[in-house]
Automatic annotation (TrEMBL):
InterPro entries cross-referenced by the UniProt entry: Glyco_trans_1, Glyco_trans_4-like_N, Glycosyltransferase_grp1, Thiol_BshA
GO biological process terms on file: bacillithiol biosynthetic process
Glycosyl transferase family domain segment(s): 189-350
SUPFAM superfamilies registered for this protein in UniProt: UDP-Glycosyltransferase/glycogen phosphorylase (SSF53756)
Residues covered by the Glycosyltransferase subfamily 4-like N-terminal domain: 11-177
Coiled coil: none
Protein name (record): N-acetyl-alpha-D-glucosaminyl L-malate synthase
Organism: Epilithonimonas lactis
GO MF terms, alphabetically ordered: glycosyltransferase activity
């Protein structure tokens, strides 16, 4: 099978899911073609089954906005034609499913076509997609896909509530390759904290939806009761809030470590005691799953799909969005009780194993095969009429 993956190249969850999925498929012998504006962050192009096609936007002074979607659909059309792809997999409705639909129209004009799978990751449904400027295009692109998948039950429910969708939505959750933790060396704990200190960690793209202010306030509350350090990994627009918080709380300056984007994420997660995810919205919460795979329990909000991953009182604790006090108290309770912490670390890992790549990859492969079979069948029926 030759699969075309259309995705954002960034560190964000959708790009990571698309990249890890593509690389695992390539390891199984499938030919995988990534189409994106830049090389996806975690993509290993040394695998002979992996191809990368960069979308080049030709700038032209006449354009007020450079037409990325046109360049993208042209590239999809070219790659399907040149490499005879069997299926396209768009990660996000806009621009990917939308551009893939245009590419399919170009192919159809030459009596060719290819089936399209669209995976909904979240913000295309819960945030940007609902804006009147995009809503109709998002709804249209989803309905034009041959197969639609969503990364959680919660996102499926939101999609059906906010859009008029005529097709079945299959839930295929985010996944994690637990095997990478088997021989992943931890960093030196003393790089981050002394023996008597606990380590709290937050990893995100620091967008407003992540509620970084809550992370900081939770840490301030916890730090008053439990000797601790906070590690923040990632970069984004809310960075300024962190600096502002530090100016207002100078006693915490040496206790909050800002690491930016790191390559050693899993190693750092492994020596952390608790992961904070107080998000406003989270269709799944891949970051929480990565933490659990590193045996780190999660204190989170109950937004979107998080309760499908983080189980109350088992793998961590959840509270209403914005309830900093409850999340702080849960954190203090967890970090002050070694027995509870050890139990939750164990449970977190057991939960991560349920979302293991080994369980989810076959579901994706079966979904591709079914999509192609149905597509071919519909073509035959169409030819017979
Ligand atoms: O919010 C992020 O961290 C990035 C965002 C993205 O667009 O890549 O992640 C979304 O997709 C992930 C993979 O399916 C999910 O695990 C995240 O929960 C989801 N983010 C939101 O819904 C805010």
């Amino acid at each position: 099978m030759k699969i075309g993956i259309l995705c954002y190249p960034t560190y964000g969850g959708s790009g990571i899911v698309a990249t890890e999925l593509g690389m695992s498929l390539a390891d199984k012998g499938y030919e995988v073609h990534f189409i994106s504006s830049a090389l996806p962050a975690r993509l290993d192009v040394t695998n002979p089954n992996i191809f990368f096609h960069k979308v080049n936007v030709q700038t032209y002074p006449l354009f007020q906005y450079q037409p990325y979607d046109i360049a993208l659909s042209s590239m999809i059309y070219r790659v399907v034609n040149l490499y005879k792809l069997d299926i396209l997999h768009a990660h996000y409705a806009i621009p990917y499913a939308y551009a893939a639909f245009t590419a399919k129209q170009m192919l159809k004009a030459e009596h060719k076509d290819v089936p399209l799978v669209t995976t909904l990751h979240g913000t295309d449904i819960t945030l940007v997609g609902q804006h009147p400027s995009y809503k109709h295009a998002v709804e249209f692109s989803i309905n034009q896909s041959d197969t639609i998948t969503s990364v959680s039950e919660s996102l499926k429910k939101d999609t059906l509530q906010f859009f008029n969708i005529h097709k079945e939505i299959q839930v295929i959750t985010n996944f994690i390759d637990n095997s990478v933790f088997d021989d992943c060396k931890t960093c030196q704990r003393e790089q981050f904290a002394s023996d008597d200190e606990k380590i709290l960690i937050h990893v995100s793209n620091l967008r407003p939806v992540k509620r970084i202010q809550d992370v900081l306030e939770i840490f301030r509350n916890v730090n008053r009761k439990v000797q601790s350090k906070l590690v923040i990994i990632g970069e984004g627009p809310e960075m300024e809030k962190i600096n502002q918080f530090l100016e207002e709380n100078p006693e915490l300056i040496g206790k909050i470590k800002l690491l930016g984007k790191v390559n050693d994420l899993y190693r750092i997660l492994q020596l952390s005691d608790v992961f904070l995810l107080p998000s406003e919205q989270e269709s799944f919460g891949l970051a929480a799953l990565e933490a659990m795979a590193a045996k780190t329990p999660v204190i989170s909000s109950n937004a979107g799909g998080i309760p499908e991953v983080n189980i109350q009182g088992e793998t961590g604790f959840l509270a209403e969005i914005g309830n900093v006090e409850a999340m702080s108290n849960y954190c203090i309770k967890l970090l002050s009780n070694e027995e509870l912490l050890a139990e939750m670390k164990k449970n977190a890992k057991a939960q991560a194993l349920k979302f293991d790549l080994k369980n989810i990859l076959p579901i994706y492969i079966e979904m591709y095969e079914t999509t192609i079979a149905k597509f071919e069948e519909a073509k035959l029926i169409g030819a017979g009429n």
